[in-house]
Amino acid sequence: MGLFKYRRTEVENTGTLVPARRRELRLFEHHVGISFKNKRLLNLAFSHRSYANECGNIANNERLEFLGDSVLGLVVAEYLYLRLADKPEGELAKIKSFVVSEDSLAVIARNMKIDNFILIGKGEEYSGGRSKKALLADALEAIIGAYFLDRGFPHSRDFVLRFLVPEINTVLDDKHKKDYKTLLQELVQKKSKTYPKYILTKKTGPDHSKTFWMEVRVHERVLGTGSGKNKKEAEQTAAEMAYKVLSTANGSSRPRE
Predict the structure, then answer these.
(1) Which long-range contacts (CB under 8 A, 24 or more apart) does 230-239 make?
(2) Which of 179, 181, 44, 198 is nearest to 104 (CA)?
(3) Which of 9, 28, 94, 236 has its Cα between 20 and 30 A from that of 198?
(4) Hey, where are the domains in the chain?
């Protein structure tokens, strides 16, 4: 009864689903190998807040994203718990944090071509919204939430594992993209009993396409610098340089690229 009430109050507030849009949604379903009973629920998962606001405050995908995030976390946690019986909680948490990270989900979303189907407002479109990692990752979580409501947990579990098991295997084989901020923090804490400090040194470019420049210091000594399209990306680049400097100086083994 709860799901039925949800569909009536929110899915019916997504506007008219015209035949052309239904064909687009079927194309997406065919591409990723799933099938929705309620196509409007899938369409809601693609409806970004910017699009909903421009259409007169219709429903958006944020509540589905909230639900999908929880479904995703449960599926991954269950899989890791059952498969990796010899791993302690700390290692399971590290693996899980990578495979459900924004970076990881955004790559998967692009492979699913979610950027081709998502509905965004004109302003968001102008600012490159279809390529934003956060927007893509959020849309993928919303689709997971929608599929859970439409088909139930067994189907949504199968869907999630189909695209995340390869990511888990990549981590287990140590071939994944490293989180150098975390690696650097752990190394600095172990060697110096302190924390790295990140400082924004400059910003360049127009508002819609800025480049951020960061440096990372330990005990006021600059160990790395880096740039990126946002502060987080620039911090990771700076942290990678600093980690490799400290690893070489301390004779530590560096992670494989």
Answers:
(1) 231/200, 234/200, 235/181, 235/198, 236/179, 236/180, 236/181, 238/198, 238/214, 239/180, 239/181, 239/183, 239/184, 239/196
(2) 179
(3) 94
(4) 2-172, 180-250
Catalytic residue list contains 69: yes
- 2-172 carries CATH number 1.10.1520.10: yes
Residues 182-233 have pLDDT tens digits of: 888 888 888 888 899 999 999 998 887 889 999 999 888 999 999 998 998 8
Question: How many Å apart are CA 101 and CA 174, to the nearest integer?
Answer: 16
Catalytic residue among 65, 69, 150, 235: 69
Mean pLDDT of 4-30: 76
Which tokens is 21 given?
A: 């849009």
How much is the average pLDDT of 74-87? 96
Neighbours of 220 (CB within 10 A): 6
As a whole number of angstroms, the distance between CA 45 and CA 147 comes to 9
C-alpha span between 32 and 27 (Å, rounded): 9
Name the catalytic one among 65, 124, 138, 141.
141
For 180-250, which CATH class? Answer: alpha beta
Q: Is 125 a catalytic residue?
A: no
Q: What is the pLDDT of residues 102-149, one digit of tens each?
A: 989 999 999 999 999 999 999 999 888 899 999 999 999 999 999 999
Q: Per-residue pLDDT averaged across 30-53, rounded? A: 95
